[in-house]
Design a protein that fits this description.
alpha/beta, disordered N terminus, disordered C terminus, binds fe (ii) ion
Length: 321
């Protein structure tokens, strides 16, 4: 069985007990790859019995091999490419080639549309570099011109088509604005003072609009690396808002590390759903054979805990639970 040693491979934090309970749905999340994906990552997914893989983009700087490797995986994959995936090619050619390789797995502004697992995954804007709303020439070349509102509208439309009886996950490269303006917040700018909220406004608008009609269970993103610049420590990677929507920043970069004992570590964030409800979020580090070595628990919800819910409609003042 898996042994768990401490909260993070650097030894910070408290030991976590091993989780052996049966799970309904295990969703692995790969934070910004930045060129770090190999056959051992695929082995981890198999060993850990992941039901699907969510990839938040920044696979590399436009190298198509990573899109190919993700497309070769046998489990369901959903991905939204990030700002680095343009490969500094303003024509959008490199971005487009990776989108083609990923095929249905790339779900920017649309639902992933798989039949299994029973989880609705809707992608946000491709190629985001955060900072509110900025669209690179490469993204515009591929997807056409857009405004903040039109981008939000596309996310909203895709989400509202998703089956209501399935939990809804929004997948993005950068998270939404509104999660805090300190450097260590999930989308806080840490590389330049003053710190500020560097989240995406179109995604924030989309979340608030979608929730008038259906709950948003989980928002998954990366881009803002966990390790803060200037020795600023570690970013807060979990946020839960008043509607019960959970947000996880999966950007543990580099995602391949070694622990003090010299073990190779492969990072995945992890989401577990039980009976259609989000029950667990964590960061996990596996060795090359797929053994879970470290686990940082972020969220554990008992089965009877309140679920994510819709919010009051400004038009009617009604509240749907
Ligand atoms: Fe990025």
């Amino acid at each position: 069985m898996w042994a768990e040693r401490s909260r993070r491979p650097n030894g910070a934090g408290c030991a976590e007990p091993r989780q052996t309970a049966l799970v309904s749905l295990n969703i692995a999340i790969a934070g910004d790859l930045h060129g770090q994906w190999d056959r051992h990552d695929a082995l981890v997914l198999e060993s850990a019995a992941a039901d699907a893989l969510l990839v938040v983009g920044d696979l590399s700087d436009g190298d198509c091999r990573y899109a190919r490797e993700l497309a070769d995986l046998t489990l369901p994959v959903a991905c939204v490419l990030g700002n680095h995936d343009t490969g500094w090619d303003r024509s959008g050619g490199r971005l487009e080639r990776q989108i083609a390789l990923l095929g249905e797995r790339h779900c920017a502004w649309r639902s992933r549309g798989w039949s299994e697992p029973a989880l609705a995954v809707v992608g946000a804007r491709a190629g985001s570099a955060g900072g509110g709303f900025r669209v690179s020439p490469a993204v515009e070349a591929v997807y056409g011109p857009m405004s903040c509102q039109s981008s939000a509208d596309r996310i909203i439309a895709a989400a509202l088509e998703a089956p209501l009886d399935q939990p809804l996950v929004l997948l993005a490269h950068c998270g939404p604005s509104g999660l805090g303006s300190e450097a260590a917040d999930p989308c806080g700018r840490d590389w330049q003072r003053p710190a500020r909220d560097w989240g995406d406004q179109d995604l924030s608008i989309a979340i608030h609009t979608i929730r008038r009609q259906r709950p948003v269970d989980l928002v998954v993103f990366g881009h803002m690396h966990h390790r803060l610049r200037r020795g600023g420590g570690t970013r807060r990677s979990l946020h839960v808002d008043r509607s019960g929507t959970a947000y996880i920043n999966a950007a543990c970069v580099p995602r391949h590390q070694r622990d003090p004992a010299g073990n190779s570590l492969h990072h995945f964030s992890w989401a577990r759903f039980e009976s259609g409800a989000l029950s667990e979020l964590s960061h996990r580090w596996y060795d090359r054979s797929g053994r879970l070595l470290y686990r940082e628990s972020l969220l554990n919800r008992p089965p009877d805990a309140p679920r994510a819910r819709t919010t009051a409609s400004p038009a009617t003042g009604s509240r749907h639970l």
